[in-house]
UniProtKB/TrEMBL annotation, chain A:
Keyword Repeat: yes
Origin superkingdom: Eukaryota
Keyword list, A-Z: Repeat, WD repeat
Cross-referenced InterPro entries: WD40/YVTN_repeat-like_dom_sf, WD40_PAC1, WD40_repeat_CS, WD40_repeat_dom_sf, WD40_rpt
Each WD repeat, start to end: 95-136, 137-179, 195-229
Transmembrane intervals: none
Protein name, UniProt field: KLTH0E13552p
Automatic annotation (TrEMBL), chain B:
Location within or outside the cell: Chromosome; Nucleus
Keywords: Chromatin regulator, Chromosome, Methyltransferase, Nucleus, S-adenosyl-L-methionine, Transferase
The SET domain, residue ranges: 844-961
InterPro entries cross-referenced by the UniProt entry: COMPASS_Set1_N-SET, Nucleotide-bd_a/b_plait_sf, Post-SET_dom, Set1-like, Set1_fungi, SET1_RBD, SET_assoc, SET_dom
Ranges of biased composition (kind: Basic residues): 17-33
Taxon lineage: Eukaryota, Fungi, Dikarya, Ascomycota, Saccharomycotina
Comp. bias regions, Basic and acidic residues: 34-46, 128-145
The organism of origin for this protein: Lachancea thermotolerans (strain ATCC 56472 / CBS 6340 / NRRL Y-8284) (Yeast)
Assembly information from the UniProt record: Component of the COMPASS (Set1C) complex.
Protein name per Swiss-Prot or TrEMBL: Histone-lysine N-methyltransferase, H3 lysine-4 specific
GO molecular function, one term: histone H3K4 trimethyltransferase activity
Residue ranges of domain Post-SET in the record: 970-986
Length: 316, 986
């Protein structure tokens, strides 16, 4: 079994008090975009040059998302708005409607619909072409912190909220199809565990969920069953919603790898099939929480809160 | 058993035991009269039964003792009335002893008075009255038939019933063989009462009477004098040629029909009779005579009234009191005497109402009476004519309305005036000859001509001369002096104005001068233009007037001051000025009107101005005086920057409050907005002091772009903050922002419920549901409350129409249920499918949505009336211990919301995991619903009822009625937002 090898460090840890929350590899693999304050910093993965794309946000960004054609970046800001910035032409739309900081957003694979979730407990569905609000889904009772859409199936949408619920919505009707309670029988001693991250598998059948007790679960959301459970953090009550992602290898035979960042700056990899711990990288990120992990093919990009951004490559 | 009796237990036990043991117990029982002891068994049992005790027949299983001798199965016959009361009170035949009891005690009915043999009642006809008489019966006497006794007497053989009516003789029908005149075939129809108020059409009468037979002739009569219809008709009937009798019969029939009654048509009452012996002519003549009499009467009446009126308007007529003459002003009026008014307590209002249809101008209440004043004498006369002695007013004194008597007052002064004029006219009319007439005419013409000449000379010769002499242009020295004086005066006025402004307030600005100055100048300009256009003969005068105004133009502030403070200024100068001004304006007005008349006024005015100068105090105000050149200078300054007369200096532009900006950093755009004019720019340049020279073209470009960027950024910020506040209405709580970075960088933290209000709009809208799913196709921009409210309203309207009485619904449901029950009975088996829940049928349409009170709430989709059932609270039914256990686990697992509902001591309904929609109903201290526990089919169920009328889309709430928690930590805060909120649920 292979493991992650450091390709390069795109960005050394920053000294300032700017906190970094999101880094995403573009779908075409040429760029890595990192949120820095209200700006987006673009790193070229080939020649490692960087350009700053300013946005018109007045508050720092929580999350960003590449459009499927790698031309635009949508940014979720604390100023309650979402701005879609074209890398060449600048701002396309400013989506206004949330009444609290926007926490996360996700393009559908066709790139015509953008879904966003916010601290105002709602999920909003936007039409990108016109920049209008299509639908508001209010079904959580705490800030919604993470949403995801299966890579090739925009008909459903999953959301994770601090109220401990994972909900699956039908994007066409806006109805909640399924609610995955984190602890179905409420047997846990600590009560509700807030969800920090949700991530669909590539085939759209499983949902990787990370909660703030440091446990990763792979849900078969159709049956409503947990099929795999991983424990990434030692602590039971975490603060930051650290990044998770599936890493799919080029060869079909091998199983996808589950990668999770921890609050202590480690990056842990498991085999999703065997639950076997493949790798635990702790020499990078210097104890800063790994806020985002973004995989594309064998490439993986990790970003910690202090701004250190590393590009990794899975090697056999 | 025997032990009990030995101990003397009392009756209930005994009774019980006797019931069980039948005869044995009965025998053992003591205290019974020995006589009855000897009775047969059956009677004694019966006796007990009659006394209301439990009785088991001896044949019954229970009464049978174990070792009993077998008795005959059939019970003995029992005597029903063999009891004490019967035996003692009544004549009783004892069937046992077979003799009557009390035989000796009973009295016989026989007495001395009555015959022994009895008596009969017969009718006694001995006197003229028949009456019942009691006679002793004679059983020996044999009865005989009374008819056989009364043999028929010969004189009473012919008996005939007396007629009370005449025998109707057969009518001899008139036919061709008849001799003599034919019977009458005409009827006459004439009104019973003469009443001209309504009209009857002849054709209606004709049509009606044609129902009796064929009409050959129909005639209606008119009054030969007035040509008015008399409503008298003669109808002649005819018949088929062979039948000679038919017309008579028809006439008879018609007359017979209305013999005792009258024929009514459209309010008229007609009498119908056969036209015999020229009866119609008599009637017509009578009516004509009546009419003549009536007319004469009316004529007399009119004459009388006229004479009365003449009398009333004569010299004896009421005079208008002196003090009313001015008010009445020569108009005619009607007087109602004071005495009458005061007796009956009438008021002016009564007359106003009663006489509303007349065109009176006013109603005056005077010490002599009420005067109703008319503008026109004809109106007054009309009113007098119609209403005098006719108008009934409700009297306060009497029960019945009283007739009001008016008296007309034709006004005096006008009469006097006409008399005067009449006198003149009379004089003129009495010309002796044609010559005299011509003479007078010539005199008149000459007189007129002389007056015209006089006027012309004044206008054309004297006028210009005087004007020339008065033209100030001819006296430069005097005008110069006058100008000087004017200037000085204007300065004084200025000072006075300043003082006054100081006194009053600081609000007045310099603008006001400009305003009035401009207006005055404009007015003058227009006037002078008109002067140029007008005829040359008026030119000099107009020049004069314009020069006058020119002089006034130099002191616009004086005008202004007089305009603004015409009165109550303590300064003497001001008073003078105002006089001056008034005089001047008067002059101007006169000029406009007449032209010449002001000539004499001019010197007077001059004197006045002179005197004002003399008395004006100028000593103390000298130092504040601005000379005219300074004023001119000031006036040249653009209006905006002109100095203000107020005490405190004021900025021209509204103050820029940099501190109030929502962002601490100030962008270049802000500076751009801040710089308003050259001066500001200079100041800014001084402050910033930029390196002026050393900018290359490239650097300049960069600078420009930077400036642009910064300004756009600032604009964006403003825009965003505006958008935020517009979407959210309240500012976002800054404590919710993470200190260093974005929300995600801030990490997890629990958000207190109270702070959620600042970003959840639905939280702030009590009873406003937030639909979980919204479609935004209709609203391209962010969803606005306006839109939502509109759509809600539409929904509500739609629902409001649908609302039907729930009672009807319930009745329908009940019928439906009965049908199903009947079907069930036919099928004969209990089918699960057919079990119908009555409660689900009565359920109201409700939905759950995000609530302002707590996470979710239940909302009415339709208006719900008070006391209606809304929904049943459904859930798992638990026993008490299970519920307690569950409550603990729920609490432990962090399910803060409690969905446990107690039904009674031992039962709790838990809707936490399995339950109906009713579990979403929130608590409210001022609830709209209440939960009642009712029994349905032997089971207790919780049903939510509306307490009051609930509108569509209103959140449903009920009082949870939690027990008061003593521990403050345990208490649950209440966010219901009701005015009477207690703050806590428990």
């Amino acid at each position: 079994m292979g493991q992650l090898q450091l390709n390069c460090t795109l960005r050394p840890p920053g000294s300032g008090n700017v906190l970094f929350t999101s880094a995403k590899i573009s779908p075409d693999g040429k760029h890595v975009a990192v949120c820095e304050g209200t700006d987006i910093v673009l790193y070229d993965t080939i020649n490692m040059s960087s350009t700053v794309v300013p946005t018109l946000h007045s508050q720092p960004l929580s999350d960003m998302c590449w459009s499927p054609d790698s031309q635009c970046i949508a940014t979720a800001s604390d100023d309650f708005t979402i701005i879609i910035t074209h890398l060449v032409f600048g701002e396309l739309h400013r989506l206004v409607g949330h009444t609290a900081p926007v926490t996360s957003l996700k393009y559908t694979f066709k790139g015509n619909i953008l879904c966003s979730c916010s601290m105002d407990e709602s999920i909003k569905v936007w039409d990108i072409l016109t920049g209008t609000l299509l639908r508001t889904l209010s079904a959580h009772s705490e800030p919604v912190v993470s949403i995801d859409i299966p890579p090739f199936d925009p008909s459903i949408l999953s959301s994770g909220s601090y109220d401990g619920l994972i909900r699956i919505f039908d994007t066409a009707t806006g109805h909640c199809l399924k609610t995955l309670t984190y602890d179905k029988d409420w047997q846990s001693e600590n009560g509700v565990v807030p969800i920090s991250q949700v991530k669909f598998s590539q085939n759209g059948k499983y949902l990787l969920v990370k909660s703030l007790d440091g446990v990763l679960k792979i849900w078969d959301f159709v049956r409503g069953k947990v099929v795999r459970t991983f424990k990434s953090d030692q602590s039971n009550s975490l603060r930051y919603s650290c990044g998770i992602d599936f890493l799919y290898l080029d060869d079909e035979a091998s199983d996808p790898v589950v990668i999770s960042g921890t609050e202590t700056g480690e990056i842990i990899c498991w085999d999703s099939q065997t639950k076997q711990l493949l790798q635990c990288i702790s020499d990078k990120h210097a104890g800063s929480p790994v806020m985002d992990i973004s995989c594309l093919g064998a490439q993986m990009c990790s970003l910690s809160l202090n701004g250190e951004c590393n590009l990794w490559k899975w090697t056999e | 058993m025997s032990d009990y009796y030995g101990r003397g237990y009392d009756s209930p036990y005994q009774r019980y035991s006797r019931g069980h043991n039948g005869r044995r117990a009965g025998r053992r029982h003591g205290g019974r009269p020995p006589k009855r002891e000897s009775h047969q068994y059956g009677y004694s049992r019966r006796d007990e039964y009659l006394h209301g005790e439990t009785y088991f027949p001896p044949s019954s299983r229970m009464s049978k003792p174990v070792n009993a001798v077998v008795e005959p199965l059939r019970p003995k016959p029992q005597l029903r009335f063999n009891n004490d009361s019967f035996r003692e009170k009544y004549h009783y035949f004892d069937p046992v002893s077979e003799k009557l009891l009390h035989r000796d005690e009973m009295k016989s009915w026989a007495s001395e008075k009555l015959p022994k043999t009895g008596y009969v009642i017969v009718q006694d006809q001995s006197k003229d009255k028949t009456r019942a008489v009691m006679k002793p019966r004679c059983p020996d006497q044999k009865a005989v038939d009374p008819r056989s006794q009364s043999s028929p007497s010969p004189e009473s053989g012919v008996y005939r019933k007396r007629r009370n009516q005449l025998v109707s003789l057969p009518r001899l029908v008139y036919d061709k063989h008849s001799v003599g005149p034919p019977p009458p075939n005409e009827i006459v129809v004439y009104p019973v009462f003469r009443d001209h108020s309504s009209a009857v059409q002849d054709i209606a009468i004709k049509n009606y009477f044609s129902t009796f037979g064929e009409i050959s002739h129909f005639q209606s009569f008119n009054d030969p004098i007035s040509a008015l219809p008399l409503y008298v008709y003669v109808v002649r009937y005819t018949g088929p040629p062979g039948n000679l009798d038919a017309p008579f019969r028809a006439a008879y029939k018609a007359a017979k029909t209305f013999e005792n009654s009258h024929y009514f048509v459209s309010g008229f009452k007609f009498a119908v009779s056969i036209n015999r012996a020229n009866y119609s002519q008599k009637i017509v003549d009578g009516f004509i005579q009546d009419n003549i009499k009536q007319a004469a009467k009316i004529k007399k009446e009119v004459e009388r009234q006229n004479s009365q009126k003449q009398i009333s308007s004569g010299p004896q007529a009421k005079r208008l009191p002196r003090d009313l003459e001015r008010v009445v002003n020569g108009r005619p009026s009607l007087l109602v005497l004071k005495r009458f008014i005061s007796i009956h307590g009438l008021t002016v209002e009564d007359f106003k109402i009663k006489l509303a249809k007349y065109k009176f101008s006013r109603v005056l209440n005077h010490s002599t009476g009420i005067y109703i004043v008319f503008n026109d004498i004809s109106d007054a006369r009309a009113c007098m004519f119609v209403e005098n002695d006719v108008l009934a007013m409700p009297s306060k004194r009497r029960r019945t309305p009283v007739k009001v008597r008016f008296s007309l007052i034709e006004s005096q002064p006008s009469i006097v005036a006409t008399v005067k004029r009449d006198g003149l006219r009379d004089q003129k009319k009495t010309y002796a000859s044609e010559e005299q007439l011509l003479e007078t005419a010539a005199d008149l013409i000459i007189d007129e001509l002389g007056r015209a000449l006089d006027r012309d000379i004044k206008r054309r010769v004297i006028g210009p001369l005087v004007f020339d002499s008065l033209n100030p242009a001819n006296y430069p020295a005097i005008t110069a002096k006058k100008d000087e004086e004017e200037e000085r005066k204007s300065e004084q006025r200025r000072v006075a104005a300043e003082q006054k402004q100081d006194q009053q307030s600081k609000s007045a600005s310099f603008d006001i001068f400009n305003l009035y100055g401009a207006r005055f100048r404009k007015k003058n300009y227009i006037k002078s233009q008109i002067g140029e256009q007008s005829e040359p003969e008026y030119e000099s005068k107009l020049k004069f007037s314009s020069s006058l105004k020119d002089s006034g133009q130099e002191k616009p502030m004086a005008h202004l001051l007089n305009e603004s403070s015409r009165s109550n200024t303590p300064l003497a100068a001001e008073n003078f000025k105002s006089d001056d001004e008034q005089a001047q304006s008067a002059v101007e007005d006169d000029e406009d009107e007449e032209g010449f008349s002001d000539v004499s006024e001019l010197p007077e005015k001059k004197i006045k101005t002179g005197s004002s100068e003399a008395t004006t105090p100028e000593t103390e105000s000298n130092k504040y005086v601005l000379n005219s050149s300074r004023i001119q200078e000031l006036l040249r300054i653009p209006e905006k920057y002109r100095p203000d007369a107020s005490e405190e200096p004021k900025t021209i532009y509204p103050q820029d409050d940099f501190d109030s900006y929502e962002f601490s950093s100030v962008s270049l755009g802000d500076f751009q907005r801040a710089v308003k004019d050259e001066e500001d720019f200079e100041t800014l340049k001084n402050i910033l002091n930029p390196p002026s020279s050393a900018l290359s073209s490239n650097e300049e470009y960069i600078l420009h772009s930077l400036v642009h960027e910064v300004s756009t950024e600032a604009e964006e910020r403003h825009k965003v903050s505006k958008l935020q506040t517009s979407a959210n209405e309240v500012p976002f709580d800054e404590s919710l922002r993470s200190s260093a970075g974005s929300f995600k960088a801030g990490g997890f933290k629990k958000i207190p419920d109270k702070l959620k209000n600042c970003y959840l709009p639905h939280r702030r809208k009590l009873h406003q549901p937030l639909n979980t799913v919204y479609n935004h196709q209709d609203t391209p921009e962010a969803v606005t409350d306006v839109h939502r409210n509109e759509s809600e309203k539409l929904d509500m309207d739609a629902h409001a129409q649908e609302v039907s009485s729930s009672r009807v619904n319930r009745a329908i449901n009940r019928r439906f249920q009965q049908d199903i029950e009947a079907q069930k009975a036919m099928i004969g088996s209990e089918s699960e499918l057919l079990t119908l829940n009555q409660l689900t049928k009565r359920k109201k349409p409700v939905t759950f949505a995000r609530s302002a009170i707590h996470n979710w709430g239940l909302y009415a989709l339709e208006p719900i009336a008070a006391k209606e059932m809304i929904i049943e609270y459904v859930g798992e039914i638990l026993r008490q211990p299970v519920a307690e256990m569950r409550e603990r686990t729920y609490l432990k697992s962090g399910i803060g919301s409690s969905y446990l509902f107690r039904v009674d001591e031992s039962t709790v309904i838990d809707a936490t995991k399995k339950g109906g929609i009713a579990r979403f109903i929130n608590h409210c201290c001022d609830p709209s619903c209440t939960a009642k526990i009712i029994r349905v089919g032997g089971r207790k169920r919780i049903v939510i009822y509306a307490l009051r009328d609930i509108a569509a889309n209103e959140e449903l709430t009920y009082d949870y009625k939690f027990e008061r928690e003593t521990d403050d930590e345990e208490r649950l805060p209440c966010f219901c937002g009701a005015p009477t909120c207690k703050g806590f649920l428990n």
